[in-house]
Amino acid sequence: MYQILKNITKAIVPKQISRKYKSTFRNVVYLFYKGNDYACNLCKAKLKTFLKLPNNDLLCPRCGSLPRTRRLYQILVDKKLLEGKILHFSPPFGLHKKIKQLPNIQYTSSDYEDEFIADAKYDITKIPVKNETYDLFIAYHVLEHIAADAAAMQELFRVVKKGGYGLIQTPFRIGTTYENSNIQTPEERVKHFGQYDHVRIYSVDGLKSRLQQVGFKVEVITFSEVSNNINGFKESETVLLVQK
Question: Looking at 65, 81, 109, which one is the last position of a domain?
């Protein structure tokens, strides 16, 4: 039902109005999911269940967070990375709102395609800021969309401070990174890369190697969930923590 209502809203309601009332819509939906069995670590909602999407992702009905977003927030807290100047590409609504409310943080969000609420519209291959501006950047599910990914990685290295960090995640495959510049149509990209606007699919080692080539130190963090997964994380997940 949630997905049907979301699709109808997207089709008939202008984007700016939809964004304005998104929180109200979700708070209404949340009333049907209140309980004490699960919890969203981002918005602190207590749930009887998460809302399961067609791809089996578990959505928080209150803030709209996906498992990868809740995991990202947990990493930010556990690693004590929520401080200083932060640059966040394509920020999910709930996390954007959460970080904006935190004190003593200079938070800049960017979305080039106007798909997310954001402060700026930076081209990740040509970021218009000075060298070593940010303490942290977040590029979750971004690089697989970028044809010139080497240029993007070089820019990320340039704008983060010495000793600063970055959190990166993309879809991954076993084996080697797969890309083919001859694959151009949305239909072909879905078939080869899993989504109509993806231009490659990385392997973990392949992405790690490319990041190291521009100068980053890379730590591969792998999660494997067991029982009592009250926050609705994915059972297995990989995140790259980089440092300049």
Answer: 65
User: What is the arithmetic mean of pLDDT over 150-166?
Assistant: 98
This prediction has a pTM of 0.88
Under the banding of pLDDT at 50, 70 and 90, the label for residue 92 is: very high
Nearest to residue 121, comparing CAs of 113, 130, 112? 112
Determine the structural domain holding residue 197 and report its residue range.
Answer: 66-243
- Per residue, what are the HEC states of the chain? CHHHHHHHHHHHCCHHHHHHCHHHHHHHHHCCCEEEEEECCCCCCEECCCEECCCCCEECCCCCCCHHHHHHHHHHHHCCCCCEEEEEECCCHHHHHHHHCCCCEEEEEECCCCCCCCCECCECCECCCCCCCEEEEEEECCHHHCCCHHHHHHHHHHHEEEEEEEEEECCEECCCCEECCCCCCHHHHHHHHCCCCCCEEEEHHHHHHHHHHCCCEEEEEEEECCCCCCCCCCCEEEEEEEEC
Q: Considering its fold, how many domains does the chain have in total? A: 2
Q: Are residues 195 and 133 in the same domain?
A: yes
